[in-house]
């Protein structure tokens, strides 16, 4: 048994050591191992070298890409676009359509990972302030606070403040106009019991596709954190703020990629023809602000019991943009023109000089065939020369407020390690969509700030309560754990134009059981097996669609089984896990039919969600880390995964491969340290996905870090990273529909200069 108070203090001290060890390299690789309570399920923690394989300008999501079972794909090498970000693990996905993996920051729930109102870890955490990522593949930690943890969890852990006072400044310059400024001040120990830091960064990049007005990312980010120790009580507080504007990447078909493998069909020259300019890159935008703050109170009730309570607050606001090549004609239920609610009675692409809609000239059937068939209605050749082209700028507004608390009690009583707690959250999410008139579509996409139509305005209220309990019992070399958890989730939709609550759904889970066995075979080897029932509540997005039959939709569930072995003799670490997952009641969106041949910009709240069978996943995950010498480390991981659909559904056939799931992933990386110099090389193979070819991406990193203690300088660091050094051309993450994919980023380099004062 162990004293929980001492364990908590030890963990904090190790985290602080990691946060200040960047310049402590003395001819050997810094190897810090945090040994917590043994687990009976597959789990991985990133190695310190994985942080150095990524540039500081990159998203924190990228650091877990080399772990077994995981595939991370972002629109570019710097993670410059949330719309094109996809994460897959064991056949489960996070993309624009699916959220099946849980994500937390310091154990605090992220509020969902979806595009519309969600926020992944990169919105809360700069790479310099990340100490590690804890990954639970398949069978998640019982206390994880997430409504999406069907196939596992990611917990991103922020650095603890340093005991030493310092100021750090870093500047990054890279390909595709990438630039980044970062500054961080550590207070050291103040008031004899407190350490704190505050940091700020400004990041700018351009889209790697195209030139000129091809869009990019503009991101401001700030964080503050403190830790105060008061006898038996430790108080931690953290606040993060992120303000970002991103231009999206577009997904392409296999045929489009084969024809133009370095173009995503978005343009960067304004033509004055709306049918073409609907693909103008800067009109495809994501704007988001996220503020997340929490306080964590850890009270050592006794040497063997610990109570942790963490209240938190999150505010999310933002907008998603598109530029439809027409104006709409909204009408109310009586057919009268309206500016709020109602439906679209028709669209038009040209007007006369007085703004009156025009129809194509009689007998004209000519059509533009890119990006899809325009029909005569949007073809300038079917109108007189004095006709004026028109278009819209469509905004979808997202706002979310979350207030919640997590509580956890741990106690060691004889042979029992008991853990129990709860998570409660109240969330309000507002979503509305408005259409603005482009002032003069012949010139540019500048728009009238007053919308001519607000299509819908809804508020979704979600109340979540999760409780759990677990007992780990030690019988010599064998540890048995048994756990139970339950979710109580209520969701309501309020339609502001009907002034009424128009939908309600109860998304409670059954009692969800988990259990596992851990056997210490010898001092180096442990065997484990586990079973867990996981759950994903019905999401409020399901209530967006008026045609969804809520009485017939059930929450998604998954049964996860792990069987594995871990070996560690200091120099060599090995893990092997075989898993089997049964995913039931998969919820899928069925879009309404569209005769546009392209994007249906007016889809609004049409379409419906329904349960469509499930997924069976089986596979094997292997990882190995070997210290060839005190200076040289080799890491490898391999995943073989087979995910197939159960039950027939629209677009899915029982027994067919799950869309975007990868059968084989293989990673081989090496890192070498010599004095103050470091060098690393990493290669990742991603196998075939249906008709999509396999590919291998090779990354290189090098750096020089030294303590100088000259004048005001304490330390300097130079870090150089090149992604995809072979300039491999490939299709990366998919969109979940099996027909379009995002183009993988080309060779991309960045250099970071860091000085600590």
From TrEMBL:
InterPro entries from the UniProt entry: Beta-barrel_TonB, Beta-barrel_TonB_sf, Plug_dom, Plug_dom_sf, TonB-dep_rcpt-like
Transmembrane segments: none
Pfam families hit by this protein: Plug, TonB_dep_Rec_b-barrel
Compartment annotation: Cell outer membrane
Segments forming domain TonB-dependent receptor-like beta-barrel: 325-725
Domain TonB-dependent receptor plug as annotated: residue spans: 39-145
Mode of membrane association: Multi-pass membrane protein
SUPFAM superfamilies: Porins
Signal peptide: 1-24
Taxonomy, superkingdom: Bacteria
Keywords of the record: Cell outer membrane, Ion transport, Iron, Iron transport, Membrane, Receptor, Signal, TonB box, Transmembrane, Transmembrane beta strand, Transport
Family designation: Belongs to the TonB-dependent receptor family.
Protein name stated in the entry: TonB-dependent receptor
Source species of the chain: Pseudoalteromonas undina
């Amino acid at each position: 048994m162990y004293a929980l108070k001492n364990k908590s203090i030890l963990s904090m001290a190790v985290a602080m050591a990691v946060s200040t060890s960047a310049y402590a390299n003395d001819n050997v690789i810094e190897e810090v191992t945090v040994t917590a309570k043994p687990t009976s399920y597959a789990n991985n923690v990133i190695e310190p070298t994985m942080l150095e394989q990524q540039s500081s300008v990159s998203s924190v999501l990228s650091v877990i890409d080399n772990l077994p079972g995981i595939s991370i794909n972002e629109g570019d090498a710097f993670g410059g676009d949330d719309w094109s970000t996809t994460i897959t693990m064991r056949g489960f996905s996070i993309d624009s359509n699916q959220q099946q993996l849980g994500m937390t920051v310091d154990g605090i729930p992220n509020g969902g990972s979806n595009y519309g109102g969600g926020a992944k870890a990169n919105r809360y955490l700069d790479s310099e302030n990340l100490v590690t990522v804890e990954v639970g593949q398949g069978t998640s930690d019982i206390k994880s606070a997430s409504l999406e943890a069907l196939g596992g969890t990611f917990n991103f852990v922020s650095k603890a403040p340093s005991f030493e006072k310092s100021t750090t400044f870093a500047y990054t310059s890279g390909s595709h106009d990438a630039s980044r400024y970062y500054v961080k001040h550590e207070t050291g120990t103040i008031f004899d019991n407190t350490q704190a830091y505050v940091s700020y960064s400004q990041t700018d990049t351009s889209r790697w596709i195209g030139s000129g007005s091809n869009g990019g990312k503009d991101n401001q980010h700030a964080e503050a954190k403190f830790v105060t120790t008061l006898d038996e009580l430790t108080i931690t507080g953290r606040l993060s703020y992120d303000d970002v504007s991103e231009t999206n990447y577009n997904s392409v078909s296999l045929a489009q990629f084969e024809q133009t493998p370095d173009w995503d069909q978005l343009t960067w020259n304004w033509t004055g023809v709306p049918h073409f300019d609907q693909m103008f890159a800067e009109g495809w935008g994501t704007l988001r602000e996220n503020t997340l703050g929490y306080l964590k109170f850890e009270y050592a009730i006794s040497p063997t019991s610990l109570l942790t309570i963490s209240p938190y607050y999150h505010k999310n606001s933002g907008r998603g943009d598109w530029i439809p090549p027409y104006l709409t004609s909204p009408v109310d239920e009586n057919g009268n023109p309206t500016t709020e609610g109602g439906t679209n009675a028709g669209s038009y692409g040209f007007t006369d000089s007085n703004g009156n809609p025009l129809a194509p000239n009689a007998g004209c059937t000519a059509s533009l065939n890119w990006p899809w068939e325009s029909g005569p209605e949007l073809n300038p050749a079917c109108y007189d020369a004095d006709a004026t082209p028109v278009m819209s700028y469509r905004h979808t507004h997202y706002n979310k407020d979350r207030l919640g608390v997590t509580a956890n009690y741990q106690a060691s009583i004889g042979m029992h390690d008991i853990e129990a707690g709860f998570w409660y959250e109240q969330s309000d999410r507002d979503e509305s969509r408005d259409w603005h008139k482009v002032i003069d579509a012949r010139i540019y996409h500048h728009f009238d700030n007053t919308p001519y139509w607000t299509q819908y305005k809804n508020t979704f209220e979600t109340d979540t309560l999760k409780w759990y309990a677990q007992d780990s019992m030690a019988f010599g070399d064998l540890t048995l754990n048994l756990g139970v958890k339950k979710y109580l989730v209520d969701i309501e939709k309020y339609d502001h134009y009907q002034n009424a609550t128009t939908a309600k759904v109860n998304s409670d889970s059954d009692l969800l059981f988990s259990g596992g066995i851990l056997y210490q075979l010898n001092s180096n080897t442990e065997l484990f097996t586990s079973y867990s029932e996981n759950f994903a509540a019905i999401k409020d997005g399901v209530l967006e669609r008026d045609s969804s039959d809520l009485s017939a939709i059930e929450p998604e569930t998954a049964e996860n089984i792990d069987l594995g072995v871990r070996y560690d003799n200091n120099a060599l670490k090995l893990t092997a896990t075989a898993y089997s997952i049964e995913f039931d009641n998969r919820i899928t969106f069925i879009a309404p039919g569209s005769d546009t041949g392209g994007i249906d910009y007016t889809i609004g709240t049409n379409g419906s969600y329904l349960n469509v069978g499930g997924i069976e996943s089986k596979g094997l995950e292997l990882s190995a880390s070997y210290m060839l010498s005190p200076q040289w480390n080799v890491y490898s991981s391999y995943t073989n995964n087979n995910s197939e659909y159960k039950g027939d559904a629209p677009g899915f056939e029982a027994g067919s491969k799950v869309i975007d799931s990868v059968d084989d992933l293989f990673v081989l990386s090496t890192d070498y340290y010599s004095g103050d110099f470091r060098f690393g090389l990493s290669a990742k193979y991603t196998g075939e996905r249906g008709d999509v070819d396999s590919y291998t991406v090779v990354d290189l990193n090098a750096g020089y870090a030294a303590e100088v203690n000259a004048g005001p300088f304490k330390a300097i660091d130079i870090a150089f990273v090149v992604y995809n050094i072979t300039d491999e051309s490939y299709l990366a993450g998919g969109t979940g529909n099996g027909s379009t994919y995002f183009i993988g980023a080309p060779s991309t380099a960045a250099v970071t200069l860091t000085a600590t004062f």
